[in-house]
Amino acid sequence: MNTFDIEKLVRPNVREMAPYSSARDEFKGEAQIYLDANENSLGSVSSELFNRYPDPTQNKLRTKVARLKGVEPEQIFFGNGSDEPIDLLLRAFCQPQKDRVLIFPPTYGMYKVQANINDTPVEEISLNEDFSLPLEKIQEVVNPQIKLMFICSPNNPSGNLISKLGIIDILKCFKGLVVVDEAYIDFAPVNVSMISEINTYPNLVVLQTFSKAWGLAGLRLGMAFAQKPIIDILNKIKYPYNINTLTQQHVLEALNGIDKKEQMVATLLQERTWLNEELKKLKAVKTIYPSDANFLLVRMEQANLFYKKLTQSGIIVRNRSNVALCDNCLRITVGTPNENQALIKQMQGISLKLLVKNEL
Ligand SMILES: Cc1ncc(COP(=O)(O)O)c(C=O)c1O
User: Fold this and answer.
1) Does residue 122 lie within any of the structural domains?
2) Are residues 145 and 90 in the same domain?
3) Which atom of ligand 1 is least distant from the CA of 210?
4) In total, how many domains does the chain have?
5) 227: closest CA among 1, 79, 2, 5?
6) Which residue's CA is minimally distant from atom 2 of ligand 1?
7) Residue 3 confidence class, pLDDT cut points 50, 70, 90
8) Segment 133-182, tens digit of pLDDT
9) Is 182 a pocket residue for ligand 1 (Cβ < 6 Å)?
10) Which domain holds residue 194?
11) Is residue 303 part of a domain?
12) Cβ(222) to ligand 1 under 6 A?
């Protein structure tokens, strides 16, 4: 049995501190006249009114997202992108220069960047060659100094889902927090999300975002799902008004359009299959890794050259050649049908030139 204790895990200064109490925290009802927050009572310079601070607890959004995700409202934290909960988890649970985090490269770069900002040493265990979790190595390395581990599923940049059973094995024995970043989960088969496990495992945090399948990256809304004690800590240390009014309004409206989200996901998945088939035909393409996300990781002959030529033609993909296990790999986001056709056409042209020069 895992003897997980959140009170012991949280940084002592965070446990002891009193959070900032905003005007809107102190008075929550509806009033005629608001003279409590030093806002501009006359209105806004812009044509739409934004003179009032946003709801610091994001209640309407919380109720709607809770229903959608099948969790309690108090099991959700909203952040300015999922980058915010990544940052706050580090600040809440890792004492700089003392505690550590564990990551599994190749993976999303922000875990390490945020840990560096927080002056928290990062331990790294490479994923296996097939980008699965190296479970035995994790058991060997884990120690009490490691307070957080970040597992990205589906993983960026490899695109594969990480086995749920493997994650559950870790949850059962690790006494720190297991943060499962599910930014791309809407592109994966149904019912694979770890959200269904948050009531069972007090040390599980699941991150999701409106930036990918919902197509709302510009609004910056990320979510962390976990049991209430963890969510309370994140809310305690967040900026009081971290989710602006526009974002709250737009996402509330977008939540009525789940059919459109599902339609877009279906189209992107079809396009992913098409791209996969077309890329396979190119002699320069060595491996296309199985993807549960809206991108493909493609191992090529001469990835740097393809990257350069594509960029010169105005098509930007992500060159991951310098990343662990991704030698000669490009990460290609699935685009619109026209964009995908343009990409393939350019890649065919580059391949042909290399073939003619006998360089493939
Ligand atoms: C795995 C992963 N997590 C999180 C993010 C960032 O999400 P957000 O836009 O919600 O900050 C990204 C963005 O590319 C990502 O790939």
Assistant:
1) yes
2) yes
3) 10
4) 2
5) 5
6) 183
7) confident
8) 999 999 888 999 999 999 999 999 999 999 999 999 999 999 999 999 99
9) no
10) 6-243
11) yes
12) yes
Q: How far is Cα 287 from Cα 289, in angstroms, rounded to an integer? A: 6
In the chain, which ranges are continuous DSSP H helix?
Answer: 6-9, 12-16, 23-26, 59-69, 83-93, 110-117, 135-141, 164-173, 228-237, 245-254, 258-280, 303-312, 337-356
- Compute, in angstroms, the gap from residue 82 CA to the centroid of ligand 1: 6
Whether residue 209 has its Cβ less than 6 Å from ligand 1: yes
84 ligand 1 Cβ < 6 A: no
Same domain? For 311 and 186 the reply is no
Amino acid identity for residue 318 in this structure: R
For residue 102, tell me if it sits in a domain: yes
pLDDT digits (tens, 9 = 90+) for 288-333: 999 999 999 999 999 999 999 999 999 999 999 999 999 999 999 9
Ligand 1 centre distance from Cα of residue 152 (Å): 10
Instruction: Judge if 29 and 130 occupy the same domain.
Output: yes
Verify whether ligand 1 is closer than 6 Å to residue 109 (CB atom). no
Q: Give bridge partners of residue 330 from the DSSP assignment.
A: 298, 319
- For residue 228, give the CATH number of its domain: 3.40.640.10
Based on the fold, state whether residues 227 and 264 are members of the same structural domain: no
Of residues 339 and 139, the one with the higher pLDDT is 339
Quick one: pLDDT band at residue 28, thresholds 50, 70, 90?
confident
199 and 69 share a domain? Answer: yes
Measured from the CB, is residue 211 less than 6 Å from ligand 1?
Answer: yes
90 touches 103 (CB < 8 A): no
Exposed / middle / buried, residue 82 (Cβ in 10 Å: 0-12, 13-18, 19+)? buried
Any residues with CB less than 8 A from the CB of 263 and at least 6 apart, and which?
Answer: none
Nearest 5°: phi and psi at 329?
A: -110, 140
